[in-house]
């Protein structure tokens, strides 16, 4: 009963909050001609850019902006030992780790092959990483806004430099401020002083790392970033002090990805269509939550022989002070949204429970990352519309745009890229010592560790299954590349689709046109996500979590 | 749909050549047009080479032989489906080709003419055609009148008149002159004529892929690539655990997963769609036009012949004040006795007088100048005709004229045509001629509306009459007093609003509108200009067919979509058959995924592969006939097809593979 209440409170409550936030985001990101003029002018002045960009120029600006972000961060991380704000004198970082981390934070992944409090200076954490948590998330929101404008039939997609400021200053910053405030009230540290020193009862001296945790945390969750201030992420007592910070964090994880769907619906002026997409995503996320909570209700296999009560479920790797349900719930939410923060040790989840976060990253569109989740869903929509459109006897159309060879090519290429990054990467590391030498466990579980790491990188999720020596050079480079390709291909390809769509004569919608607002299309979309998205990964799943599950006596 | 009876698909004369071609189509140059089937063939070749290696090693070959066999069979079944679809048009093409080979023409040169082969006739040459000749090339009659039998093209043996000028001037190569003569100016270069186009069409050879077909091919190729990654990475995954997978097993999994079913049937579906149209006596100039037909939003329909019967019928007599009804009826009857038009006969019938005609009469026929007809009985002159024409005959009583005009307006307002009747100096009244809306047409329009298609009636009538008929027929809109320019403007307006427009026409002045419309069906009897401008030609000259053409276009796309859905949904069951079979040696626990309870791993793999192969010929009839098509909303259409082909595609292979597994293990094949 408790489980049900917690899940309803978090998922249902966030869904309710997301509706007004979606309307606000529409106002902030895509104001009507005389709305938010003051802000628009301000942002235009700051960036010195005001012209309407077509899809190519918008995309190029976005990419150049991201290259600059990457370079800056790379520089800050590489030079942190000589830069200020390093009270604990953190030393130089390994170059492959610098590459991996710069890629990780630029791409909104926040895969961390390091422990923040041990390796990073405050400058690295704040100027390098926290800054990126804002702008990488803002990049995603801007991309979705531009895409929606194109789908709404506008050939000018507005200006990326203005959009990225709108997303940072009007959306992320105010919401993050509210969330940080609530977090501090709930007992989270927020300071720029160095580590605290404490003398333990035994007389030993303990160094307690701390820092501007609350500020870091709010944006880590809201921007589907997930990179923790501390290595253990949200399982660390200072990063997640109480049940309420825990609940608030989970709400923050889901909030903006959910609101993005409504914003999309408002910009394309098809709110019922958005509601249908929202419903399909909700069905998927609830199925995964149900699965993970159910599978996690059995005790871990290692305990079967021991005289331990089996009514408590699997308690291994959980923060007991937060309750046993939130672990698997968090695991699903954080992977469904490409967030990647963790609230429990994923490595210790029961095998089939562990399959749920994997599935979330394979689909990467059941709410998904800020902005980009909806963009990923757009890929599935294009394919669903194409197949369903033929079944109603017309050249397939999406909101009046004809879906033809070009659009299908880009859409299927995006799915292909996702499969190659995950399965190809896993194959390379699973078959060679590159991966084999780094796994903690052998057999199916070790395989899952490798599979998880590549899924997390390609889906820009950032969570780790852990139990993997992923700090090595090959891991840093391979996942770094997976993150970069996994981030920019799924932005470039949908932009190309929309570029092709806006160039065509828009068709009128009639009763003979495929409806994209009814349950039938919802079913079609769900099937498409399952068959085109999930089925590809079934063999890998069979050899990982499923094999492990059935190998347990 | 009023289609001609469908021939049986699997008749010996069609199947035998198709079987032969299944092998000739293995030629890589042809096969590469279909990337998925090409991939399957490459994989089959690989499996065969491995088989030879195993034989050389004297290993156990029973399993590998079967894998290779079924892989090849998958490719052959795909070729067979295509060959069978093409075969249906081949016989027709042969007949047309032999007609074409024997064509000769009399080319006029100076005062005489020389006998040349049709292939030497160029655009602009003038040929003489006489009784008994086959017309050597498409062209325009520039002099003379001839009666032509067009059965070779249309299958309709009633002769038609072809004459210079007007809308009946086009002649087609291969048709026979059965009386008189004409001089014809050739309008096409050799090889570009109607006959050539028809041969190419019915053969389906070198068929250009349509835009939707290209897009679907892209999707299927992309899926194949994705499954290549999914299957290609498996050896590495398994190597992690120290296991291995035999290559024949891997290729079996790969071919079972890639969308071979729809790929094998894809071109057959396209050819069959064109074939349905041809058997419906409509020639589409390209597959693109057939697809566009399915997308039509607005249908422009000519009133006469499409919405109403060609002939109007008398339905009421309306007398002026002071006139006895009997007087009017008698005069109307008398004036129509000599009138053999359907309208005249309907007036006689409505009068209902079973008397003989009076003696001593003289029939005054209708002419375009007078626009009246009637009867002279001695000095008595009884006339009927268009109201303004009758009123111009002489001075009538002004009060009677005023009343006549009022009656005329009233008739027009309800969609009728009035004829005035006079007897000598007296105006008697009017006959109300009614346009008879075809029975069942209103229901057809209601269906079209459900499908989201708007119908617009085009008529030369005045707006009052047009509105009344439009209301009665249930069309959505009408264009009254329409000129060709009005039609063109209407089409452009609809297109600017993002709609696709279909229309039909026959006259030269229809050509611009036919060319502008997205689907323009030209009547075969029409002018050469109209036939060139449209992208379809209706050999039966029946404008109502436009509605069926839309249906055929939709059915074509629906068949493609339905079979794609079916094919892709099948993968779920195939995974559940093959994955446990492959991995069970590595992780015995994975036998739990063997939900079908297949007997052995080898049998499971073979059964999935066999199902994958034989589903192709099993679906050939569906591909060729098309899925059942009913006029209904898109939403209902999708529910129907998704539940049949989506759900069916999920369930059918579970049953099929299980049954095949019984057979395979029962026969001891694996």
From TrEMBL, chain A:
HAMAP family: KdpA. Its main location: membrane. One of its GO terms (cellular component) is plasma membrane. This is Potassium-transporting ATPase potassium-binding subunit. The system is composed of three essential subunits: KdpA, KdpB and KdpC. Keywords: Cell membrane, Ion transport, Membrane, Potassium, Potassium transport, Transmembrane, Transmembrane helix, Transport. The gene is kdpA. It is found in: Cell membrane. GO terms for molecular function: P-type potassium transmembrane transporter activity; potassium ion binding. The keyword Transport applies.
């Amino acid at each position: 009963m408790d489980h049900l209440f917690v899940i309803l409170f978090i998922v249902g409550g966030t869904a309710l909050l997301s509706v007004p936030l979606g309307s606000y985001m529409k106002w902030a990101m895509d104001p009507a001609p005389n709305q938010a003029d003051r802000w628009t002018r301000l942002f235009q002045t700051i960036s010195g850019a005001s012209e309407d960009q077509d899809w190519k120029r918008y995309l190029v600006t976005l990419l150049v902006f991201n290259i600059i972000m990457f370079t800056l961060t790379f520089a800050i991380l590489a030079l942190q030992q000589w830069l200020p704000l390093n009270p604990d004198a953190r030393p130089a970082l390994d170059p492959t780790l610098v590459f991996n981390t710069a890629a990780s934070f630029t791409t909104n992944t926040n895969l961390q092959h390091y422990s923040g409090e041990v390796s990073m200076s405050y400058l690295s954490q704040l100027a390098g990483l926290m800054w990126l948590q804002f702008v990488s998330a803002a990049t995603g929101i801007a991309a979705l806004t531009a895409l929606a404008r194109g789908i709404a039939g506008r050939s000018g997609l507005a200006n990326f430099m203005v959009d990225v400021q709108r997303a940072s200053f009007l959306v992320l910053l105010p919401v993050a401020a509210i969330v940080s405030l609530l977090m501090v009230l709930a007992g989270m540290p927020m300071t720029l002083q160095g580590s605290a020193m404490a003398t333990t009862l035994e007389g030993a001296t303990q160094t307690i790392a701390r820092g501007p945790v609350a500020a870091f945390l709010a944006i880590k969750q809201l921007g589907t970033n997930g990179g923790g201030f501390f290595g253990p992420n949200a399982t660390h007592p200072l990063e997640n002090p109480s049940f309420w910070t825990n609940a608030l964090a989970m709400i923050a994880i889901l909030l903006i990805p959910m609101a993005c769907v409504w914003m999309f619906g408002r910009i394309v002026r098809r709110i019922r269509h958005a509601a249908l997409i929202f419903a399909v995503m909700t069905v998927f996320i609830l199925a995964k939550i149900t699965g993970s909570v159910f599978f996690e209700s059995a005790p871990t296999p290692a305990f079967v022989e021991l005289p331990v009560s089996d009514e408590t479920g699997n308690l291994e790797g959980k923060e007991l002070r937060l309750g046993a349900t939130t672990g698997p719930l968090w695991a699903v939410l954080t992977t469904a949204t490409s967030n990647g923060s963790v609230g429990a040790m994923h490595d210790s989840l029961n095998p089939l429970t562990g399959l749920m976060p994997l599935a979330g990253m394979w689909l990467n569109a059941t709410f998904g990352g800020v902005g980009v989740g909806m963009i990923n869903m757009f890929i599935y929509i294009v394919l669903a519309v194409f197949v369903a459109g033929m079944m109603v006897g017309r050249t397939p159309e999406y909101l009046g745009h004809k879906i033809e060879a070009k659009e299908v090519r880009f859409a299927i290429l995006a799915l292909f890229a996702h499969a190659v990054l995950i399965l190809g990467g896993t194959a390379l590391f699973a078959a060679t010592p590159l991966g084999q030498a780094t796994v903690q466990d052998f057999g199916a579980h070790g395989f899952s560790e490798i599979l998880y790491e590549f899924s997390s990188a390609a889906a820009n999720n950032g969570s780790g299954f852990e139990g993997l020596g992923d700090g090595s050079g090959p891991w840093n480079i391979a996942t770094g590349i997976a993150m970069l390709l996994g981030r920019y291909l799924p932005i470039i390809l949908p932009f190309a689709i929309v570029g092709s769509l806006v160039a065509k004569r828009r068709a009128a919608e009639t009763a003979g046109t495929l409806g994209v607002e009814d349950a039938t299309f919802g079913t079609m979309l769900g099937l498409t996500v399952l068959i085109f998205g999930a089925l590809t990964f079934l063999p890998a799943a069979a050899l990982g979590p499923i094999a492990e599950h059935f190998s347990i006596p | 749909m009023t289609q001609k009876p469908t021939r049986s698909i699997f008749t010996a004369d069609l199947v035998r050549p198709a079987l032969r071609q299944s092998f000739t189509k293995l030629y890589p140059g042809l096969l590469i047009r279909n990337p998925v089937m090409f991939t399957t063939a490459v994989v089959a070749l690989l499996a065969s080479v491995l088989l030879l290696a195993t034989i050389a090693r004297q290993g156990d070959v029973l399993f590998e032989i079967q894998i290779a066999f079924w892989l090849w069979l998958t490719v052959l079944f795909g070729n067979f489906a295509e060959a069978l679809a093409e075969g249906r048009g081949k016989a027709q093409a042969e007949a047309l080709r032999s007609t074409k080979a024997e064509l000769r023409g009399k080319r006029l040169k100076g005062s005489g003419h020389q006998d040349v082969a049709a292939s030497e006739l160029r655009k602009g040459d003038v040929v003489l055609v006489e009784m008994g000749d086959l017309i050597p090339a498409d062209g325009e009659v520039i002099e003379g009148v001839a009666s032509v039998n067009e059965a070779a093209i249309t299958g309709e043996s009633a002769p038609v008149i072809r004459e210079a000028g007007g809308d009946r001037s086009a002649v087609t190569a291969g048709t026979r002159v059965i009386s008189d003569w004409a001089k014809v100016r050739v309008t096409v270069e050799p090889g570009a004529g109607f006959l050539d186009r028809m041969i190419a069409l019915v053969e389906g050879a070198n068929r250009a892929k349509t835009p939707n077909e290209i897009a679907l091919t892209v999707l299927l190729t992309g899926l194949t690539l994705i499954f290549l990654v999914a299957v290609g990475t498996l050896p590495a995954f398994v190597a992690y655990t120290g296991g291995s997978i035999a290559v024949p097993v891997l290729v079996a999994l790969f071919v079972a997963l890639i969308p071979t079913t729809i790929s094998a049937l894809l071109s057959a579906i396209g050819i069959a769609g064109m074939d349905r149209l041809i058997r419906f006596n409509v020639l589409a100039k390209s597959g693109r036009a057939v697809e566009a037909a399915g997308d039509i939003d607005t249908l422009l329909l000519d009133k006469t012949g499409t919405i109403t019967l060609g002939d109007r019928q008398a339905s009421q007599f309306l007398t002026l004040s002071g006139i006895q009804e009997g007087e009017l009826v008698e005069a109307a009857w008398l004036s129509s006795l000599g009138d053999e038009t359907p309208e005249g006969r309907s007036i006689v019938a409505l009068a209902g007088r079973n008397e003989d005609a009076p003696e001593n009469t003289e029939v005054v026929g209708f002419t375009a100048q007078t626009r009246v007809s009637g009867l002279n009985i001695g000095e008595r002159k009884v006339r009927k005709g268009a109201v303004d024409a009758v009123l111009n005959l002489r001075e009538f009583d002004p009060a009677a004229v005023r009343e006549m005009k009022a009656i005329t307006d009233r008739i027009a307002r309800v969609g009728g045509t009035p004829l005035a009747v006079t007897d000598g100096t007296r105006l008697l009244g009017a006959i109300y001629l009614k346009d008879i809306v075809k029975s069942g047409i209103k229901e057809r329009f209601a269906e079209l509306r459900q499908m989201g298609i708007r119908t617009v009636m085009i008529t030369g009538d005045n707006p009052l009459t047009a509105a009344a008929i439009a209301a009665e027929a249930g069309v959505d809109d009408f264009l009254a007093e329409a000129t060709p320019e009005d039609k063109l403007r209407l089409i452009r307006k609809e297109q600017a609003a993002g709609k696709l427009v279909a229309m039909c026409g026959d006259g030269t002045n229809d050509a611009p509108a036919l060319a502008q419309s997205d689907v323009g069906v030209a009547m075969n009897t029409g002018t050469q200009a109209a036939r060139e401008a449209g992208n379809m030609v209706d050999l039966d000259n029946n404008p109502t067919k436009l509605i069926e053409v839309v249906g055929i276009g939709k059915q074509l796309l629906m068949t493609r979509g339905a079979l794609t859905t079916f094919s892709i949904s099948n993968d779920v069951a195939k995974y559940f058959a093959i994955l446990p079979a492959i991995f069970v040696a590595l992780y015995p626990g994975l036998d739990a995924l063997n939900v079908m309870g297949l007997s052995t791993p080898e049998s499971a793999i073979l059964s999935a592969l066999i199902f994958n192969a034989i589903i192709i010929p099993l679906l050939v009839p569906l591909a060729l006939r098309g899925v059942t098509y009913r006029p209904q909303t898109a939403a209902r259409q999708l529910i129907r097809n998704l539940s049949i082909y989506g759900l069916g595609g999920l369930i059918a292979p579970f049953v099929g593979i299980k049954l095949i597994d019984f057979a395979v293990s029962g026969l001891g094949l694996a």
